[in-house]
Automatic annotation (TrEMBL):
The keyword Transmembrane does not apply. One of its GO terms (biological process) is tRNA processing. One of its GO terms (molecular function) is metal ion binding. Keywords: Calcium, Metal-binding, tRNA processing. Signal peptide: none annotated. Belongs to the archease family. Pfam families: Archease. It comes from Thermosphaera aggregans (strain DSM 11486 / M11TL). Residues 13-155 form the Archease domain. This is Archease family protein.
């Protein structure tokens, strides 16, 4: 199936055509870079992140039971940061990514930071309002030298 690209930042993520929501294909040379680019795509859907300075930094963590649930929680926690503090991020950095073996499966964890500034509609472009990440069409794939994630953001 050929997806039509309708925007994004080349090499980091693309917005794919979707009837009613924001459909994202993110890339990374590592799983960490994939999660960083996925987080940036979330904010880029809402505004032009190149116009956001990095004057405010917030720590962000997430846990999941597999890669998809971890990506969902990561995106959800970044979105909660926006709705709680109105911080719109232009930089997303992960410094810890762990998979721990448990008696009943695995636990995935990610920790990092998001840098940006408080969103001001008189200065920053308002694009769409994201309600939530979803599991719709979500998948994470690993090729020889690249990771790809597909996910839908509910607007």
């Amino acid at each position: 199936m050929m997806e039509k690209v309708v925007g994004g930042i080349p090499g980091r993520f693309e917005f794919l055509e979707h009837m009613s929501d924001v459909y994202v294909r993110a890339y990374g040379g590592s799983i960490i870079e994939l999660f960083e680019n996925s987080g940036l795509a979330l904010f880029e859907a809402m505004t032009d992140t190149s116009k956001i300075n990095g004057s405010v930094e917030r720590l962000v963590e997430a846990e999941g039971f597999d890669l998809e649930s971890l990506l969902y929680k990561w995106l959800e926690n970044l979105l909660v940061l926006y709705y709680a503090e109105r911080v719109m991020c232009s930089q997303v950095e992960i410094w810890e990514f762990k998979i721990e073996r448990k008696e009943v499966g695995e636990e995935y964890r990610v920790r990092g930071a998001c840098r940006g500034e408080v969103f001001n509609p008189s200065i920053h472009e308002a694009r769409v309002e994201i309600k939530s990440p979803t599991y719709s069409l979500m998948r994470i794939l690993k090729d020889v030298d690249q990771w790809r994630a597909y996910f839908v953001l509910d607007i």
